[in-house]
């Protein structure tokens, strides 16, 4: 007896989902639109292509590479050299050797430079893959490491003075209006019931929304066919606000991520997730 | 050598449930790049799944299938501990075969 093919993720499915959105999109029906988006995500949950990256990231972590021909297995993500499990959920944090608060991607750059001997300029040059391009090393390793924090409590520390300062600067940045539209992060993310096109915008002044947002990045963006990291998310928000492009793993981006992370403390990591 | 697939196979009461996540660009051949040139078609054209030397699923795919395809299906006649082999071939002739043990 021939087997029944139950599900093949296809563009037809995406088109059906879009038709679903279009049919329910109206001011009064924002709840059912949200429900349909949630149902669409649920349908995609099983076949998250981010899983394909985890193995690649693991290989990149463990393989000796770079001028020093060293692996990243001695990289200290805050819980001790080489300890990956639960590390992402406790970042950003202060690192004494760098004398700086670093988020995961910032710490990864630090380790790639100091342990493996890569030139920093090369490492930060093109951290995000383009359309149709192979995912970058940074994206792959980030997927591997964040997967090891799945299900763990978000616990971004605020003990060291620099950690507290990063939070304060991040909060300032969150509310700072600028750019040609005079937008701040809070313009979109500081009030309830806002959306951009058909995408609901979480209000980060609400703890539950902040937790969900922080827990679900990095995420595989189906519309882009690629895994996107938290640094990418900040970069893309700046783009949407028509702000100047932020420097990859700059202090400003780390401060913002610190602010968002601390606001999300107590939540549960659920990454890599899958999004529209 | 194309990236490996992730295959999960579980023996259930009504058959073996197989879930395969394949890594592939699935370029339709209709997209244009930044300079306006067509990005050439590159997609999986055939998928074959076999168990105990018999083909249990044979599929012909085209541009409608999304990037990084996810395939889920059930077949009868497999037991826990058996091996399931999945092979895909794309329109450029590249191919990838991976196996999984039914759990």
3D structure, described in words:
The complex is a heterodimer of chains A (276) and B (103). Chain A has helices at 11-24, 30-45, 50-62, 104-114, 120-123, 137-147, 161-175, 185-189, 207-215, 230-240, 251-263; strands at residues 4-8, 93-95, 100-102, 194-196, 199-201, 219-221, 226-228, 273-275. With 276 residues, chain A is mainly α. Chain A has one domain (48-275): Cytochrome c-like domain (Cytochrome Bc1 Complex, Chain D, domain 2, Orthogonal Bundle), CATH 1.10.760. Chain A is globular. Residues 19-28 of chain A have low confidence and may be disordered. With 103 residues, chain B is mainly beta. Chain B has a single domain (6-101), classed as Sandwich (Immunoglobulin-like), CATH 2.60.40. Chain B has strands at residues 6-12, 15-21, 44-51, 54-60, 70-75, 83-90, 95-101. A four-stranded antiparallel β-sheet of chain B has the order 4-3-6-7, with no helix packed on it. A three-stranded antiparallel β-sheet of chain B has the order 1-2-5, with no helix packed on it. Chain B is elongated, with a radius of gyration of 15 Å. The mean pLDDT of chain B is 95. Classes of the chains: A mainly alpha (276), B mainly beta (103). Chain A binds chain B through residues 1, 3-14, 46-49, 51-52, 55-56, 132, 222, 225, and chain B through 3-4, 6, 15, 19, 21, 23, 25, 27, 31, 33, 39, 56-57, 59, 64-76. Strand 1 (4-8) of chain A pairs antiparallel with strand 5 of chain B.
């Amino acid at each position: 007896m021939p087997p029944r093919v139950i599900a093949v993720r296809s563009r037809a499915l995406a088109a059906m989902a879009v038709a679903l959105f279009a049919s329910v999109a109206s001011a009064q029906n924002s709840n059912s639109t949200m429900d349909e988006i949630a149902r669409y995500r649920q349908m995609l949950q099983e076949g998250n292509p981010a899983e394909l990256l985890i193995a690649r990231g693991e290989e990149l972590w463990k393989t000796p590479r770079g001028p020093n021909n060293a692996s990243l297995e001695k990289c200290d993500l805050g819980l001790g050299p080489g300890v990956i499990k639960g590390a992402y959920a406790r970042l950003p944090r202060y690192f004494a050797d760098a004398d700086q608060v670093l988020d995961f991607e910032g710490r990864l750059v630090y380790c790639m430079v100091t342990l493996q001997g890569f030139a920093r300029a090369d490492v930060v040059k093109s951290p995000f893959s383009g359309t149709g391009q192979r995912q970058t090393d940074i994206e792959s390793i980030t997927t591997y490491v964040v997967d090891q924090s799945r299900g763990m409590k978000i616990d971004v520390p605020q003990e060291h003075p620099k950690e507290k300062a990063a939070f304060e600067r991040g909060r300032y940045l969150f509310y700072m209006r600028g750019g040609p539209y005079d937008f701040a992060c809070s313009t979109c993310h500081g009030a309830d019931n806002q959306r951009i096109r058909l995408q609901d915008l979480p209000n980060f002044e609400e703890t539950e929304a902040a937790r969900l947002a922080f827990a679900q990045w990095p995420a595989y963006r189906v519309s882009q066919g690629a895994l996107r990291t938290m640094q990418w998310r900040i970069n893309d928000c700046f783009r949407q606000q028509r702000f100047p492009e932020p420097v990859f793993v700059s202090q400003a981006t780390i401060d913002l991520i610190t602010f968002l992370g601390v606001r999300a403390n107590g939540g549960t990591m659920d990454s890599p997730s899958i999004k529209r | 050598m194309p990236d490996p697939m992730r295959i999960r196979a579980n023996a259930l009461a009504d058959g073996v449930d197989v879930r395969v996540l394949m890594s592939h660009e699935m370029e339709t051949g209709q997209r244009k790049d930044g300079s306006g040139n067509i990005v050439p078609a590159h997609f999986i054209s055939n998928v074959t799944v076999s168990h105990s030397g018999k083909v249990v699923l044979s599929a012909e795919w085209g541009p409608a299938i999304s990037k990084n395809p996810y395939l889920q299906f059930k077949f009868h006649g497999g037991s826990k501990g058996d091996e399931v082999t999945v092979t895909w071939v794309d329109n450029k002739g590249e191919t990838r075969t991976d196996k999984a043990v039914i759990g």
